[in-house]
Every structure is written in C-alpha cells, then in structure tokens.
Amino acid sequence: MSLLWIVADSVCADVLGCCGGPCRTPTVDRLAEQGTLFPRAVSAAAWTLPSLAAMLTGVYPHRLGLARWEQPWPAGRETLFDLAARAGRVVASFPFDPQFLFSRVPAARVAGSSQDTGRLLAWLREHRDRPYFAFVHYWWTHIPYLMWPLDTRRWRKATDVVLSALCAGPREREGVKRLYRHAVERFSESWLPRVLEAVDLDRTWVVIAADHGESWGERSGTDGVRQVFDLHGNDLAEEVLRVPILVRPPRGGPARRIEGIVRTVDLAPTLAELLDLGALPPDIDGASLARSVREGAPAVAADAVSVRNADFVTRLETPGSPSDLWTGYALTKPRQRLVWDVGRDAFDFFELEAQPSGTATVAERRSGEPPAALVERLRAEARRAVVGEFDAAESARTAERLKALGYLE
Predict the structure, then answer these.
(1) Which of 299, 363, 365, 378 is the most exposed place for a label (fewest CB within 10 A)?
(2) Of the candidates 236, 274, 284, 5, the residue with the CA atom closest to the CA atom of residue 120
(3) pLDDT (tens digit, 9 = 90+) per residue, 269-294?
(4) How far apart are CA 289 and CA 134, in angstroms?
C-alpha cells in the first residue's frame, strides 16, 4: 500500500466543513466520510519546521533541538522517511521550497516543490502502480493566501498588503479572514481533486493534516501583528495549536470521528503501524492511533505538549542553553490548558469547554492558580529539552534567503 500525506500550512481545526467550520470543503469532507477524522488534534509547535519534525519522528521538538531551517536533523533519530525506504516504498517529498524544508534531510528525497503542481501530479502518475511514501507540504493556505507561485518581490508585496490590512481595523481584518477561508476552499476544491485523480485510491492511504493554525491578532491587538510569525510561531494560542487530522484507508472505510486529546506527534507511530513500516524507537513521545483508525477506539493520550522557540529568524548565534532556545511551553488536557513563559517564569491557566457537537471550536476562559501537577509536568518537559546542531555560516546564508523572501528587513 502507498501513502499520500498532505500537510496544509496554517489550516485551523475549526475552518473545514467536516469540522463544523465555515469553509465549503466537500472534497475534504468526502474523505472524512470515508475514514477517520480527528477534529481537535494539538500541534507540537507553533510553526512549520519543528511541527513537521515532530510529525515525522514522533518526538517532541524540544527533544530534537530543531528550530531553524538549515539545521540537520539529529543523527540517529529515525524518521518515517527512513522506515518507508527500508520497507521498500519509493520515498518522495514536495516541500514548499526545497531551499528550506528538508534541505538538510537526505532521507526526505525531495522531488520538487509543492508549488509546482504539474511536477507533483507527474510524479504521482508515474508511481501510481508502485508502493510509495509521498509527503506534500501544501503552501497556498499560508499568508498571503494566494493560489499560485509568487516570485520573491510579488510574495513580499502581497504579504505586506495582508499584514497592513490586519492592522487597519475590524472590517479589514474580516476581509483577511475571508481571503484565508477562500484559500482553504481552493485547497479542497481546486487543488486536491486534481491530486486525488492522480492516485489509485484503492491502494493508497490518504492523510490530511496541518502543521499549525493561524491567528489574526484578536488576543494581543492588531498592533502586535507586524510580521508573518506574529500570525503563528510567536504565540501558543489555542487557535494556533489546534489542527485537524484526517486518515482515509485504501478503498475507504466507515466514517469515524474521534474526540479527546490527539497529538500531531502521534502521526509517526500511527502511520508506521498502519502501513507496516516497522517500529520507531521506544523512546518516542507519540502513541499509535491505529486502533482508532481501524476500530474507532478512543484516543489514548492524557495530554499534549506544544513548544515555542526564540527568535528563530533573526538570531544567528547558537543558543547557549535549552532555555535560551525553547521560550514557551503549553500543556493541553481535555478540559484545561496551561501556558508557560519560560523567560518570565509565568503561567497562564485556562479552563476549556468544547462547543456544540459538530464543531472543533474550543472556548477557553482564564482561571486561577494552575494545579501544581500541571506546572511540574511542563517543568519536567523543559528538563528534557536540548539544543540541536547549529552552523553559524549556514545560518547567515539562510538569513539572507529569508530577507529575500520578506521575512526579514
């Protein structure tokens, strides 16, 4: 059996139609009707690189030490790419830009950019009759929410327009959110059907997930929205961490909807088991959800950990310690959420309440002092944190590329 694994950038859990959201996404919804939907999964990180690393290894990002594009992934830490290749699958990945994501991950076997849809479709058609493991990072649900490749100048210009609109007032902010929802709908109804037509759905697992969600400054005020990473990356807000996960088996199956705590870090052991790729090391953080997919069993995790890292764009020096690198942690439980700002050693504690059935939205209200056990749970995670390998020269080159893309002034 093959796997087509699509991670749509910045897609919140509560926007898809199958999750009770406002977007018209019948193609995604049909996949959900033929498989298992986890509408309230929790991302392990607030931006793309550490989030995807956790998905592909089953290990929390602070244990990997990955926080910059140019870092090599930890030697000796197996990924699903490694397992799939060893199991005889043809491996290929299609990141948004081969210069960044997976640029130091040879096992990913980058075959092109996900923004080159023609190349992606050609690869899928060529390998339609062979067992493969294809990973696609879909980019066009990311700001500026436009569905066509943009050169550096046009990408930066369009992004600046969107960021300016967010700061202009409530009406303009609503316009940006509508643009975002249109981008999600185009993913489902313009891009995804073409991809599915190139796949033998009788012999292919289809997985759709998101690396993180998106925010528009409602919590901190739009004055705080000055750059791309103010929409995701710099905050451990609920809307940034909640994402959907959808797993459709070959030939389809019964519609299942699994509530409870599900984590993106669970995807690696789940897919390793479902595709019979072999076992990941026993020290991973994720737990297999294969029984949920096969039988509808409840999710097994008691909580989910998410992390934020420091100034991953502008700082070129190597962090001196894990606490320099990992500046925030969040702990999500079924009815509670705790956020720790490491620098201030301050905790924000929230009570959670699920909204009416059929939606992935979660309401939260600030509560009093957090339980000591939850505080210790996050402090224990911080004690497991590491700093990965950093190369100052490579960091400088990446910074120049980021300046060209508009992430840096």
Answers:
(1) 365
(2) 5
(3) 999 999 999 999 999 999 999 999 99
(4) 20
Nearest to 330 by CA among 51, 45, 10, 54: 45
| Cα angle for residues 344, 345, 351 (degrees, 5° grid) | 110
Tokens of 73: 């992934």
Contact 387, 71 (CB under 8 A): no
The dihedral formed by the CA atoms of 195, 15, 330 and 306, expressed in degrees to the nearest 10: 0
Owner of token pair 């991953």 = 312
Question: Checking DSSP bridges between strand 256-257 and strand 36-42, what pairing results, if any?
Answer: parallel
Give the C-alpha separation, 7 to 312, whole Å.
Answer: 21
Q: Is 256 helix (H, G, I), strand (E, B) or coil?
A: strand
CA separation (Å) from 7 to 48, 52, 95, 170, 357? 10, 9, 10, 30, 25
User: Residues 245-276: pLDDT tens digits?
Assistant: 999 999 999 999 998 899 999 999 999 999 99
Of 172, 212, 182, 186, give the one whose Cα is nearest residue 46. 212
Enter the tokens of residue 148: 């066509």
Can you tell me the distance from the alpha carbon of 143 to that of 183, in angstroms, rounded to the nearest whole number?
A: 9
Q: Domains (ranges, CATH) in the chain?
A: 2-301 (3.40.720.10)
